Amino acid sequence: MQRHTFLKLFSAAALASLGLTLGASAALAQTSQSIPFFYPVNVGGPINKIVDDFASSFNASHPGSRIEPIYSGNYQETLVKALTGFKSGTPPVTAVLLSTDMYTLIDEDAIVPFDGFIKTDADRAWLSGFYPAFMKNSQAEGKTWGIPFQRSTVVIYWNKDLFKEAGLDPDKGPSNWQELRDYAQKLTKKDARGNVTTWGVQIPSSGFPYWMFQTLTTPNDVELINDRGTAVNLDNPKSIEALQYWVDLTKDGLHPPGVVEWGTTPKDFFEKKAAIIVTTTGNLTNIRNNAGFDFGVGPIPGNRLQGGSPTGGGNFYIFKKTTPEQQQAAFDFIRWVTTPERAAQWSIDTGYAATSQAAYDTDVLSQYGKEFPAALVARDQLPISVAEFSTYDNQRVTKVLNDALQAALTGSKTPEKALQDAQQEATRLLRAYQ
């Protein structure tokens, strides 16, 4: 009887203890905030796994928050999903979107500035540590709206084997427009029927044609936008000269005709269909892993200026219509994931430029740069880089420019006419912001 009574008492105590344990677990689960995080996948390579690992590591060390990566398509699709969610009252708490989406997000009143989260000297040192070139597309109206994460410049890649076959120095890329043209002539190959089997140079004109165009306008000493996102400079004679140069490469059979796909350009390089390609440094690790031949990486060739590239890539943003606690948790994650050590490893794993000098000063990235100097090309262009094309009403203004570029490249308009028409329409769209 006593034993039976003891077992009853023990069972009751065990159940009570179990109830307390389950209750504590449930309470912990309830206090662990869900932080939906929209992330675009737009460049080759195992990016998803890296982002998943970041989220898992942060969650393990921050039990009060649960970062939940949601892979939301390419940049454009991710922006649409984020704004649709915002308008319906269910935005992500944070998202990586193009740095050029800043004015669109401000205009939609969809994001909060980061300034309110900066409270300590350490926070201020962190914010001031990002390269100024990357902050050009991150700050406006005296506030910081985006935090640089997967940022880049445009670079050129070349096949060293094809350079050797053409009698070119495999360790030296073209340094100016004339050299680029001369190299392309020597590198272009045709079969017995006269069909091109290897193009001398390939610049993609789908996806981000405006960005590729800036790799020609920047070294030609012309900026396409003002620093307030309210005016464009498309019909400047130097802009027209830059587009004419691109069109002439195609007319002279040195560059593929028509619209060249962004996504297939690295593959064309792997398959030796193009000897020189122009694309983001965010493709560096992808190309290193898949090229199957020695390749070079160099800065954008110059013309009127020594060189220069637009910056590019994505920033972190924090959305309104989320709780202050969620926003703080998102900021904590962004602060955590952009520390120099993690930014350094991210650069190595992806090919994106590290976003601060402190990241390049880490032992791991310093050593990597010595072993693989190509990883430093994007960084070394930053002092002469310009802001990526971005304005208010950015989606429509950018489409106007993209359509004009493709009209010139397909031959339906001259470069001059295409850019004059684009200037007129873009000015009309931006009039309300002036």
From TrEMBL:
Where mainly located? periplasm
Q: Where is the signal peptide?
A: 1-26
Question: Which is a Gene Ontology cellular component entry for this protein?
Answer: periplasmic space
Q: Any stretches that span the bilayer, and where are they?
A: none
Q: Where in the cell is it found?
A: Periplasm
- Keyword Signal set for record: yes
Matching entries from InterPro entries are given as: Bact_solute-bd_prot1 (IPR050490), SBP (IPR006059)
Alphabetical list of SUPFAM superfamilies matching this protein: Periplasmic binding protein-like II
Which controlled-vocabulary keywords does the entry list? Answer: Signal
Sequence similarity: Belongs to the bacterial solute-binding protein 1 family.
Specify the protein name.
ABC transporter substrate-binding protein
